[in-house]
Amino acid sequence: MKKVRVAVVGANGYTGGEMVRLLAGHPSVDISILTSRQFAGKNITEIFPSLRGILDMPLVELDVADTARTCDVAFLAIPHTQAMPIVAGLIREGVKVVDYSADFRLQDPKVYEKWYKAPHTESALLKAAVYGLPELHANAIRTAQLVALPGCYPTGAILALAPAIKNKVIDLKEIVINSMSGVSGAGQTPSPQTHFPEIADNLRPYGVTTHRHIPEIEQELSLIAGEQVNVLFTPHLVPANRGILTTVTASTVSETSSAELVTIYRRFYDGAPFVRVLDQGMYPELRFVRGSNYCDIGLAYDQRTKKILAFSAIDNLCKGAAGQAVQCMNIMFDFPEHTGLRFGGLTP
């Protein structure tokens, strides 16, 4: 069986390392090249000793032309604003690209420039970029050359809201999203805010009203609704390594019930292998999705306030990043969507 040749650009970070971990066990993949500007010349096992005996491969400096010659698809795990020229170079060479950064998620370059405080130098590619949330855009992903991988917070928030918006269950003017994330979502570079004594035994909101994932969430929800949707989104940092638990509250437009919500959500996600809509009265926990590509969703209707509550749990590094990237690759190359990803969460 012919295998897909893959490159991981920026293989030394948390999401890059998670990508390598998943690809190393994928039955239809050959990893052709791993790049790292910071650790070029080192072996991947020096950065991630967990890969000892699994993958023996050096990290090299990125050369776009060399990378393009050796791979069919490239995964870019590099910071926002830095991906644009690399993506453009790989696309010109005919390589399929799955980009982790925010550089191609937003359809309007002016919105990107407002929230990311940088010019968009490859705006011509935005029309070709497909937002890489398979539960909403699988058909477009299948034929895409450029997939813009969703952010981790938007993944959990959009999946928790999409069925309710599509089925016109909620008032679009009263959507509140609160998400709690493990510290790995802040990346590998230490900061005073993520220093162990600062986050252990602590919980705090951040990016209040200003988080860069807000326009991404609103863009995708507006496309579902067919009209502009604005949300109040507040992220929180919690003393955990991995995972995002999201709580959505919204007023309903008419009477419903928790059982009816479960039915609506299960119908919407029928055939989506990585969304698990829980039974009425059950709610998601991080420990059941940690290390996996699953999104667990729980639902409730509060008769007293006429509001719904939708809860989602994902692993920010897997369904929120690397696992979702593999899921997109599977669709792009006509593999079964679950290939290399059918494993449960790490519990306890």
Write a concise keyword list for the protein shown above.
348 residues; 14 strands; alpha/beta; Dihydrodipicolinate Reductase, domain 2; seven-stranded mixed β-sheet; Rossmann fold
Would you give the CATH topology of the largest domain? Dihydrodipicolinate Reductase, domain 2
The whole-angstrom Rg is 20 Å
Please give the largest β-sheet.
7 strands, parallel
CATH class of the largest domain: Alpha Beta
Number of strands: 14
The CATH architecture of the largest domain can be given as 2-Layer Sandwich
Question: What strand order characterises the main sheet?
Answer: 3-2-1-4-5-7-6
Structural class: alpha/beta
Number of helices: 11
Silhouette? globular
Distance between the termini: 37 Å
How many structurally independent domains?
2
Order of helices and strands: EHEHEHEHEHEHEHEHEHEEHEEEH
Low-confidence stretches: none
Level of helix content? 25-40%
Strand content: 15-25%
Descriptive report:
There is one protein chain. By secondary structure, the protein is an alpha/beta fold. It folds into 2 domains: 125 residues, NAD(P)-binding Rossmann-like Domain (Rossmann fold, 3-Layer(aba) Sandwich); 164 residues, Dihydrodipicolinate Reductase, domain 2 (2-Layer Sandwich). The strands form 2 sheets. A 7-stranded parallel beta sheet has the order 3-2-1-4-5-7-6, with helices on both faces. The chain is globular, with a radius of gyration of 20 Å. 46% of the residues are buried. The mean pLDDT is 96. Catalyzes the NADPH-dependent reduction of N-acetyl-5-glutamyl phosphate to yield N-acetyl-L-glutamate 5-semialdehyde. Its EC number is 1.2.1.38. It catalyses: N-acetyl-L-glutamate 5-semialdehyde + phosphate + NADP(+) = N-acetyl-L-glutamyl 5-phosphate + NADPH + H(+).
